[in-house]
């Protein structure tokens, strides 16, 4: 599958001829200063939860591209009030068939609030199944035994996990998460953006390799295949 990494937890996957964008936080990320959000293609925008560092650029990209924004009911309601025209709600446990394949919402162990501090529903992850392959984006989460259910729903080609620690899983927990979901390929996200989630990338890659797992830490703006 073709993936482009836009920094922090933002990445896109091309499936079924559609560009599926996840958690766009670019204009507020100094590390992604060379990325122009006006050039990012999107047919769908999946939002894992309400924190600013996962949804700051949703409205701008959705309004420019006409992309369908997908998220929990509270985010569906919020973005509707922000003027986004194309929306689809999906709550944990729910599965929706789209033209690129299917998306299932799963719980993430994390807090969630809107920019003004109000309730944003629960945090989520997504299991995506498409003709090109299957993957799991956990969203911001701690390690949870709920992840052991993922292989019941999909044979994964790769998973996307936060590895920055402090606010989410760290490297050790992400390795265990990969074992829970039965994948040997991981895209690491949610690291280095802020001072309290900086990591030693070489050591992270080494730890994953020792566990028999391939960790991808692409440069911001890089497009690659898994």
From TrEMBL:
Coiled coil: none annotated. It comes from the Bacteria. Residues 7-190 form the Metallo-beta-lactamase domain. This is L-ascorbate metabolism protein UlaG (Beta-lactamase superfamily). It comes from Mucilaginibacter lappiensis.
């Amino acid at each position: 599958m073709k993936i482009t990494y836009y920094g922090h937890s933002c990445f896109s996957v091309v499936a079924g001829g559609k560009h599926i964008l996840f958690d766009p936080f670019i204009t507020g990320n100094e590390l992604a200063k060379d990325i122009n959000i006006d050039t990012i293609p999107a047919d769908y925008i999946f939002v894992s939860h309400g924190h600013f560092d996962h949804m700051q650029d949703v409205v701008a990209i959705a309004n420019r591209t006409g992309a369908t924004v997908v998220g929990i009911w509270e985010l569906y309601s919020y973005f509707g009030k922000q003027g986004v025209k194309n929306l689809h709600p999906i709550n944990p446990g729910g599965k929706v068939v789209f033209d690129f394949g299917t998306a299932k919402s799963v719980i993430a162990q994390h807090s969630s609030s809107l920019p003004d501090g109000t309730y944003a529903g629960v945090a989520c992850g997504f299991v995506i199944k498409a003709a090109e392959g299957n993957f799991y984006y956990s969203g911001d989460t701690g390690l949870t035994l709920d992840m052991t259910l993922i292989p019941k729903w999909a044979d994964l080609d790769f998973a996307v996990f936060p590895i920055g620690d402090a606010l989410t899983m760290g490297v050790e927990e992400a390795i265990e998460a990969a074992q829970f979901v039965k994948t040997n390929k991981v895209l690491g996200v949610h690291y280095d953006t802020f001072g309290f989630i900086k990591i030693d990338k070489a050591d992270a890659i080494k730890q994953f390799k020792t566990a028999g797992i391939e960790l991808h830490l692409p440069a911001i703006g890089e497009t690659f295949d898994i």
